[in-house]
């Protein structure tokens, strides 16, 4: 636009000057080396204007040609990018369908032309991992790691793949390296929870649980369940390393709330029994049931005790049944103590009471045994058949 205006101004000026000096064209002499050029002023003006017009026209043509070339180049580039996106989308669908070979092929064929090659390499890594091609998996992850802002997603993908392939130690190393920089990342925290459970890193899980709850990776119910699972696992590990005295000391340092949990108390009692601390286990069970008689799970542990004198246990269970005759677990435990003393009729009576309250394969088996010991073969066979129907 500026050039057109300039040309019009020059032409207008030429016309004005031409009319002012009509008939007085003047004289122009141009001498270059041995050559001379003669012309009137009017001719020179026309020549200059024509030269400028030609130059402006040539510039316009060249710019149009360059623009057309650029548009053509961009068209090919956009076409490649669109094709890469289409193949990547198809590859993701193939990955979700389980066709891992096709998924890997599609996302890698045009990955260099994708506007986000990181996505292509991550999908390819997942496809390779699902095929068990660990070298290819790691190769694609290495390519993904070369992309900008890829560290977190690449390492989380690597950790998830290790977890799926049950390489929990390698997954833990990867996640530990990330946890300092991304302490609130949900995927990282959830993956750590899974690894800690699989590796039985109970103390680490106990420390992690408040963060999981705070970041809403788990709800209150899951928090309570995982806490009991982790504390029970920790009790087993302490018992294995330090014996009965060590696990008792560990128990004493737990909170009052944890000590009232039925499952955790049963876990502690089982560890005491496993370490031949049966008297301590019986004391624990008695004191707990006196405070919390609804902890029926603990009654079944009484039958597992190896006590020098079983009379206190029989008395305790008999008193419990006087308070609550519908306590099936107490009936079953008392029956087993009677069976240990070969008191078959009493054992039969309590087992039948327990089975009237609720069905139990193990109690049916015990009842069949008690009946057999009393030469009640037909009744024992019928009871055995009932037990089999429950198993089926």
From TrEMBL:
<keyword id="KW-1133">Transmembrane helix</keyword>
<dbReference type="InterPro" id="IPR011990">
    <property type="entry name" value="TPR-like_helical_dom_sf"/>
</dbReference>
<protein>
    <submittedName>
        <fullName>HemY protein</fullName>
    </submittedName>
</protein>
<comment type="function">
    <text>Involved in a late step of protoheme IX synthesis.</text>
</comment>
<keyword id="KW-0627">Porphyrin biosynthesis</keyword>
<keyword id="KW-0997">Cell inner membrane</keyword>
<keyword id="KW-0472">Membrane</keyword>
<dbReference type="GO" id="GO:0042168">
    <property type="term" value="P:heme metabolic process"/>
</dbReference>
<feature type="domain" description="HemY N-terminal">
    <location>
        <begin position="26"/>
        <end position="132"/>
    </location>
</feature>
<dbReference type="Pfam" id="PF14559">
    <property type="entry name" value="TPR_19"/>
</dbReference>
<dbReference type="InterPro" id="IPR005254">
    <property type="entry name" value="Heme_biosyn_assoc_TPR_pro"/>
</dbReference>
<comment type="pathway">
    <text>Porphyrin-containing compound metabolism; protoheme biosynthesis.</text>
</comment>
<feature type="transmembrane region" description="Helical">
    <location>
        <begin position="41"/>
        <end position="62"/>
    </location>
</feature>
<dbReference type="Pfam" id="PF07219">
    <property type="entry name" value="HemY_N"/>
</dbReference>
<dbReference type="GO" id="GO:0005886">
    <property type="term" value="C:plasma membrane"/>
</dbReference>
<keyword id="KW-1003">Cell membrane</keyword>
<dbReference type="InterPro" id="IPR010817">
    <property type="entry name" value="HemY_N"/>
</dbReference>
<dbReference type="GO" id="GO:0006779">
    <property type="term" value="P:porphyrin-containing compound biosynthetic process"/>
</dbReference>
<keyword id="KW-0812">Transmembrane</keyword>
């Amino acid at each position: 636009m500026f050039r057109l205006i300039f040309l019009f101004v020059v032409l207008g000026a030429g016309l004005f000057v031409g009319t002012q000096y009509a008939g007085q064209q003047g004289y122009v002499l141009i001498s270059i080396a041995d050559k001379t050029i003669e012309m009137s002023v009017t001719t020179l003006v026309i020549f200059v204007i024509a030269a400028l017009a030609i130059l402006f026209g040539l510039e316009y043509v060249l710019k149009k040609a360059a623009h057309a070339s650029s548009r053509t180049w961009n068209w090919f580039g956009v076409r490649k990018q669109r094709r890469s996106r289409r193949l990547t989308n198809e590859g993701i669908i193939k990955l979700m369908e389980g066709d891992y070979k096709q998924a890997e092929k599609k996302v890698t064929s045009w990955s260099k032309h994708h506007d986000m090659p990181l996505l292509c390499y991550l999908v390819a890594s997942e496809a390779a991992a699902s095929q068990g091609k660990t070298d290819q998996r790691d190769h694609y992850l290495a390519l993904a790691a070369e992309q900008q802002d890829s560290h977190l997603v690449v390492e989380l993908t690597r950790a998830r793949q290790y977890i799926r392939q049950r390489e929990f130690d390698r997954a833990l190393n990867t996640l530990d390296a990330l946890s300092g920089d991304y302490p609130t990342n949900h995927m990282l925290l959830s993956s750590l929870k899974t690894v800690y459970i699989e590796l039985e890193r109970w103390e680490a899980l106990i420390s992690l649980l408040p963060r999981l709850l705070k970041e809403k990776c788990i709800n209150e119910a899951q928090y309570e369940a995982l806490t009991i699972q982790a504390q029970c696992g920790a009790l087993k590990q302490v018992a294995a390393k330090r014996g009965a005295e060590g696990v008792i000391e560990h128990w004493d340092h737990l909170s009052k709330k944890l000590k009232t949990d039925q499952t955790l108390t049963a876990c502690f009692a089982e560890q005491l029994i496993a370490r031949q601390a049966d008297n301590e286990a019986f004391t624990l069970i008695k004191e707990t049931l006196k405070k919390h008689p609804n902890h029926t799970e603990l009654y079944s542990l009484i039958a597992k005790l190896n006590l020098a004198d079983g009379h206190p246990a029989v008395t305790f269970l008999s008193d419990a049944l006087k308070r609550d005759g519908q306590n099936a677990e107490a009936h079953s435990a008392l029956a087993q103590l009677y069976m240990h003393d070969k008191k078959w009729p009493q054992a039969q009576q309590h087992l039948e009471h327990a089975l009237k309250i609720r069905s139990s394969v193990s109690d049916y088996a015990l009842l069949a045994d008690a009946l057999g010991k009393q030469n009640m073969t037909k009744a024992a066979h019928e009871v055995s058949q009932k037990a089999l129907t429950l198993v089926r």
